[in-house]
Design a protein that fits this description.
This protein is mainly alpha-helical and 168 residues long. Helices cover 66% and strands 5% of the residues. The longest helix is centred in the middle third of the chain and has 27 residues.
Length: 168
């Protein structure tokens, strides 16, 4: 199983790039198996995170760069899990994806303050965001379902947590 897992990962390339939403020329941030992570996808998530955390791109450059690396790492991990989930034939229903997209959209609008403000921040209409977020949300739900199957039966006792804490 693990041999197959590692053989699925054909190439993981990541490039250092600075967040500059207005001047961003799209390119490949990473490739995991057959899946491509675009720089624009990373930049969009970083933008949303910046809005959530109320960061100013002019003054919080170091913080945004750290977020960028964490976002890219998270997307790479999700794509790796997705590759395995595909082998395991994990699926989600379209209605689950629709519901998750609507919840994420509502949360994003709430954080931005209004639909108009969200559209202004991301430079796209809400209908475009729905369309763009749908495949990503489907992938996220598949990855979460696989992780749930993998770790759902894991039980950690308080004693184990205390022992771990004391050891490390």
């Amino acid at each position: 199983f693990y041999k197959r897992f590692f053989s699925v990962v054909v190439l993981v390339l990541s490039f250092l790039f600075f967040l500059s939403a207005q001047n961003l020329i799209d390119g490949v941030a990473a490739i995991v198996g057959e899946r491509i992570i675009l720089k624009s996808d990373v930049a969009q998530i970083v933008q949303m995170t910046a809005v959530e955390q109320r960061l100013d791109p002019r003054f919080d450059v170091d913080r945004l760069e750290q977020i960028q690396f964490r976002v890219l790492e998270s997307l790479i991990n999700q794509k790796l899990i997705l590759e395995i989930a595909e082998v395991e034939s994990i699926e989600v229903e379209n209605r689950e994806v629709d519901q998750a997209v609507e919840q994420y959209l509502a949360q994003s609008v709430g954080q931005a303050g209004s639909e108009e403000r969200l559209e202004s921040i991301l430079g796209k209409r809400v209908s475009e965001l729905r369309r763009e977020w749908w495949p990503d949300m489907k992938e996220q739900l598949i990855a979460e379902r696989y992780q749930g199957q993998l770790f759902g039966d894991v039980v950690v006792t308080r004693g184990e947590v205390v022992a771990f804490y004391n050891n490390y």
